[in-house]
Amino acid sequence: MKITDAKVIVTSPGRNFVTLKITTSDGVTGIGDATLNGRELAVASYLRDHVCPLLIGRDPARIEDTWQYLYRGAYWRRGPVTMTAIAAVDTALWDIKGKVAGLPVYQLLGGRSREGVTVYGHANGETIPEVLDEVARYVDLGYRAVRVQCGVPGLDATYGVGKDKMFYEPAETSRPSEATWSTERYLRVVPELFAAVRDRFGYDLHVLHDIHHRLTPIEAGRLGSTLEEYAPFWLEDPVPAELQEGFRLIRQHTKAPIAVGEVFNSIWDCEQLIREQLIDYIRATVVHAGGITHLRRIFDLAALHHVRTGSHGATDLSPVCMSAALHLDIAVPNFGIQEYMRHTEATDEVFPHGYHYADGYLHPSEEPGLGVDIDEKLAARYPYEPAYLPVNRLMDGSMHHW
């Protein structure tokens, strides 16, 4: 059996997705997510112009060799565009291998380590009372964990607070919108938010919060110390991760668990953080960290150092990636939690899938392979639409981390 075709499909059923579809000489197909939010066409071009021609004639069963061929065989390696393209190939090949074997992918990864995948939803609102109402809605849906984000008084827009409560997607405009940020105001409101959530819902509910790279290490340490009495499940992305020494400083000032990694694209981005136990959860994803093959390596390294998984799962990852993530989540021994932002009805129609939610858990498909497909005719009805993530400025006009 050989690869006879590799096709890139770009579609926008509410937001842009890039999908790679590989076909073999036996007629077996596999798909992989290749979406890089705000830079989708860069990956589409990388695949179409540089990777797809190299796949024709290769043995689809040689997943590891193909991964190394695309990684080691390119002088310019790593980076989000390259690793997202490799991830798409890798994921599609795992899909094919599962279909040929007649097994869901998680069975090829060692089988179940748990009955279901614990997920968390996003409760947000302009005010704290609005957030509390959203938390109640998720609790009513059976969620055991909820991320809470609220507006900051005096700021026109705040990260994590969306127009649609269930389908938050910040990449909306053909040019980046600009938001204004105040760390001082933010640090005042977040403890009030946590206190209100605990007062209403108690301590059985897991409560998460995303700082989104906005703070310095000492500011993050201060916030974590303030929130410790409210038992946060984690504080996500407290600082930009380029300077990883900063996480050591955070550790010195708070016992609040730290999660990071949704923008990481290789094991080398997180090796120090994991080895030195400077984080508690690694949030790398199938689509941005080299596919199932490479993400499993990251998770295995994390398992050796008491770091659990907590993969990114926002709406900028297609149902193809979510399905692949669930097959890993159900199998790895050090699973922690999975982010789960529901896709729109249009997206679910373009990407029919077998995974499902029930009582706080997601369950992977039992179909051979990943258990997800793409309706190409329907996808063609939703052409690409330029959409960029916002940018952030301080109140004096200086650029800041979004």
From TrEMBL:
Query: Superkingdom of this entry's organism?
Result: Bacteria
**Matching PROSITE patterns:** MR_MLE_1, MR_MLE_2
A GO biological process this protein is involved in?
carbohydrate catabolic process
Give start-end of the signal peptide. none
Which intervals hold domain Mandelate racemase/muconate lactonizing enzyme C-terminal? Answer: 129-257
> Pfam families in the record, alphabetically?
MR_MLE_C, MR_MLE_N
One GO MF term attached to the UniProt entry: mannonate dehydratase activity
What is the name of the protein in this document? Answer: D-galactonate dehydratase family protein
Q: Which organism is it from?
A: Nonomuraea terrae
